[in-house]
Design brief:
This protein is mainly α. It is built from nine helices and no strands. The chain has one domain: Up-down Bundle (Rhomboid-like fold).
Length: 222
Amino acid sequence: MTIPTGLGPEDDANRFGSVAFYAALGKAFVSMWAVVAGLFAIEALNHWDNNRLNGLGGIRPRQVDGLEGIVFAPFLHVSFDHLYANAVPLLLTGTFVLATGLRRFIGVTVLIVLASGLGVWFTAAPNTLVVGASGVILGYIGFLLARGIVEHSWWGIVVGVLIGLIYGTQILGEVLPTDERISWQAHLFGFIGGVVAAIAFRHRRVRLPAALAREPGPPTED
């Protein structure tokens, strides 16, 4: 018995120009708007509470009671200005990452958060407090830049180049210790985490035999 796969070029969300591709990109954009709105809600609460959440959920380098900040710090910001600066790049980069699939997005994000947070905890100056989503943003940039190369995807390469052109100066300026107010460690280790995530969560193309690769017809039964 021969059963068609039911999947054609228009059903492949990783194929540029397909219906599924545009649907995935649109859903990801709306979802990331919800994420950004959530961050503004958290910052409103934090601002109302005199930034007490930062003290509770920020990363405190090499302090055991600061380890939980690895998880919570990306959701917290110093001020609304800090959040405004992160909102647009998070929306843009997060949309492209989420469009590659929810499970991959979660895996990539977790790896980046751990890489960025642990990098800060181990290497940042003591007696400091680190909060902000910029480490995750740099991680998404690293993922997008590396993804096209790792997966041999022209679309992925184009996205990576686009992100590089938009944020190239930011990448170079924020992964080096150029401003003591900016946690370059979070950015550097987040970026590295994103590159590792592109390798760890790469999309493996399955090559079908020629007989199966042809456009399927109606099912037949022997």
